[in-house]
Amino acid sequence: MPHELYLLRHGETEWNREGRIQGSQDSPLTARGRAQATAQADILAREVPQMWQLARYCSPLRRARDTARIALDGLVPVIDRRLREVDFGAWEGLTPAERGARDPQLVAGCAGDLDLCRSAPGGEGLIGLETRLRGFLADLRAPSIIVSHKIVLMVLRGVLTDRPAMEWDRIDVPQGVVFRIGNGRETVLH
């Protein structure tokens, strides 16, 4: 990727706080989530003083759009469906205990978030997600700011930093920070 990218995860939501999988579903930002988006706005103002010159993209899901509205200080992003969170099928809206009760054998085989993505009954799966994200990256033509979701950012960061797919589950995606990626190197901005 020849362009510098700034990646933002949406702020904390009610379902994040409850441990529920959101996937293609949505829940509103919490007060903490709005504060995290404000922190991202401060980071971008410091690190990208001419932010208005960069392309801006956002997932269509409300939690990402609400974060973008705050973090981008009113600049309007292009909504791109390819940046939506992976669909977790039947597990969306469920807590870990509810998933375990519903599908104990499937859940027992999940060591991390990407295993959940691969195993979710009726879900999109990791291959489908990676395919659409590679398509998105292929269309980028300029330095950009991208506001999206945890699993999306795990995959994007893995691809952009050329990490083997087996290591993507170890990629931490905290809220309230900005990930800068350029020339295959990543910096977490606080």
Automatic annotation (TrEMBL):
SMART domains per record: PGAM
InterPro entries listed in its UniProt record: His_Pase_superF_clade-1 (IPR013078), His_PPase_superfam (IPR029033), PG/BPGM_mutase_AS (IPR001345), PGM_Phosphatase (IPR050275)
Residues forming coiled coils: none
Origin: domain of life: Bacteria
SUPFAM superfamilies: Phosphoglycerate mutase-like
Pfam family, one: His_Phos_1
Entry-linked PANTHER family: ADENOSYLCOBALAMIN_ALPHA-RIBAZOLE PHOSPHATASE (PTHR48100:SF59), BROAD-SPECIFICITY PHOSPHATASE YOR283W-RELATED (PTHR48100)
Protein's recorded name: Histidine phosphatase family protein
Species: Paracoccus mangrovi
